[in-house]
Amino acid sequence: MATLLYVKSSIFGDHGQSSQLSEKFIAAWKAKNPAGEVVVRDLSVDVPPYLDGARVGALFTPEDQQTAEQKEVVAYSDALIQEIKDADEILFTAPLYNFALPAQTKSYLDYLCRAGVTFKYTETGAVGLLESKPVYIITTRGGIYKGTDADTQTPFLKTIFGFIGLSDVTMIHAEGLNMGDEAKDSALAAAAEEIAAL
């Protein structure tokens, strides 16, 4: 049975544009995988704790030396990583807030990057340890930034997913959503067509 991991990031929940476009993706995916399962990780509801010195320390402490609190931190990170491992495909939303990802989304990604678990360093550089699988990223932006220096998301997300071994990344952009109704409708329609083509 195929499994799709859906990672939601919009602070507006199901009303966010990235969430609404994702529903179109999921509907098409279910049509192709009628027996498939969609696992939802909603980062606006289950907000990942921000990394601090104590949490980073927990992730680097040998298992036999961990305190009860440290074991909880590691177990949380392990659960997020296991969801990635168990999925056949990943749908990831990335609304652009003030030229960056939502804070909770960055925290989520921080818990995925674990030396010796999801990546390792070699003489020739870092090597991802997760088995590659398709990752579809839906971005939503108020302005138009694709292909410009202001598009901080595309290079960052491709780099960080590739860093842990997930190099098969497809970006789906919906831009100009705050530039008038005509521009918004056109952008959402174009993104929906791109999703349908996938």
Short description:
41% of the residues lie in helices and 20% in strands. The protein is of the alpha/beta class. It has a single domain (3-197), classed as Rossmann fold.
Spatial order of strands in the largest sheet: 2-1-3-6-7
Distance between the termini: 20 Å
Contiguous low-pLDDT stretches (5 residues minimum) are none
Number of helices, where a helix is a run of at least 4 consecutive DSSP H or I residues: 6
Question: What's the number of domains?
Answer: 1
Q: Fraction of residues in helices? A: 40-55%
Write down the overall mean pLDDT.
Answer: 94
Q: What is the CATH fold-level name?
A: Rossmann fold
CATH 2nd-level architecture = 3-Layer(aba) Sandwich
CATH homologous superfamily identity: Flavodoxin domain
The assigned structural class equals: alpha/beta
Please tally the β strands and state the result.
7
**Rg result:** 18 Å
Please, could you describe this protein's structure?
The chain is an alpha/beta fold and 198 residues long. The chain has a single domain, classed as 3-Layer(aba) Sandwich (Rossmann fold). The protein contains 6 helices and 7 strands; from the N terminus they run E-H-E-H-H-E-H-E-E-E-H-E-H. The strands form 2 sheets. Strands 2-1-3-6-7 form a 5-stranded parallel β-sheet, sandwiched between helices. Strand 6, helix 5 and strand 7 form a beta-alpha-beta unit. The protein starts with a strand and ends with a helix.
